[in-house]
Design a protein that fits this description.
This protein has a single domain (10-298, 333-431), classed as Up-down Bundle (Amino acid/polyamine transporter I), CATH 1.20.1740.10. The protein is built from 20 helices and no strands. The chain has helices spanning 3-9, 14-25, 29-32, 34-40, 44-71, 78-85, 88-102, 104-121, 127-141, 146-174, 187-192, 195-207, 224-253, 256-259, 265-274, 278-311, 328-344, 347-375, 390-409, 411-431.
Length: 439
Amino acid sequence: MSLNQQQNFNKINLLTAICIVVANMIGTGVFTSLGFQVVNIKSVFALLFLWLLGGIFALCGALSYSELGAAMPRNGGEYYYLSRIYHPIVGFLSGWVSVTVGFAAPIAAAAMALGQYLKSVFPILPSIPIALLVVVGVSLIHTRNLQFGSNFQLIFTVLKVILIVVLIVCGFLLAKPQPLSFLPTTADVGAIFSAPFAISLVYVIYSYSGWNAAIYLANEVEQPEKNLPRALVVGTLIVTGLYLLLNLMFLYTTPLEKLAGQLEVGYIAANQFFSVNGAKIMGLLISVGLISSISSMVLAGPRVTQVIGEDIPLFRVLAKKNAQGIPNYAIFLQLFLVTILLITSSFEAVITYLGFTLTLSSFLTVLGVFVARMRYPEIPRPYRTWGYPITPMIFLAISLWMLVFIFRDKPAESLAGFVTLAIGILVYFLAHRNKVNLS
């Protein structure tokens, strides 16, 4: 094998990078949140517009991150960008949240959900041991080599998308359509500017989170200056299309009164055209999908830890790689944190305050597109944000509104996020008693 072939073998291709984005984005949210939205929003057009607006928000974020990823193609995501654009301590705090709970808590939540869904299909299976087994298995797979882990990610993501497409097609072909109008009316304007619409948008945007997943493995992607923007944008567009079609199918197949206030929207809709086996089919579909989601986060999260280890001597051990070039110490640290969260069932409490800190991090990163253009006008920018400055401004406006909403609605959890950042500041200054050598 030539040197170029060996280098390409140890790289993530465009298709896998797209799959990482898609897998990170599609979780359980799209299968559960519509039921709460139809309680106060009766306009079908407004409901679909809600999911379209969430997709626009994610796409604006992806377009903005693409410029930074193409100009600064190094692993670490927000940690690296914020360190370069603002100050190393800003980047460290973002990385601190990612390393401690930012990936571990969502992985634990996804694993627990997978265990519960499998238990609903096979009641004899215990949910927590299943969750632990999946997380350990997926983590070990990603310690082998990048090509093996990439193929695993690719297979399960493609399988997830195929299953969702089959579900959508079956819904439209087999179900009896509901007597609903999907065209906009003047009454829809009131619904779109209502308080329930605004509240629902927060949870829809959470369902779109993960659109930035590929940036965490930037320098492991083939031709990152070209493929990172493509992966972020194409992955986000695929998920937006799937989300719109899924929600359209749910509304097309199921009476609104059956959906209202229900968590298991996917089960209810599937029962409309799969009869009594609908719940089992949905359980298996979501379980397969969650394996893909867990895998993508296990793949991305340790790369932040690795880069912190490369930059800060105190954490140097976390940057060590195995013979295959995988940051296995970082993977095992993440696995340890996920295991603790699963055993103690504390991941739900952690996730409630993650929203504020992660939204703040992405807000500062997109704002960094403006700051970087002013501070570093000379650096090459292989990709420039499409629609600049409008697209990043849309993202910033919605993010700022979300930050205010989250802080007002969940002040205790938001303050807990600030406490996490305060601890991170102490760790940063402790770590920098040994010399910092940020690249």
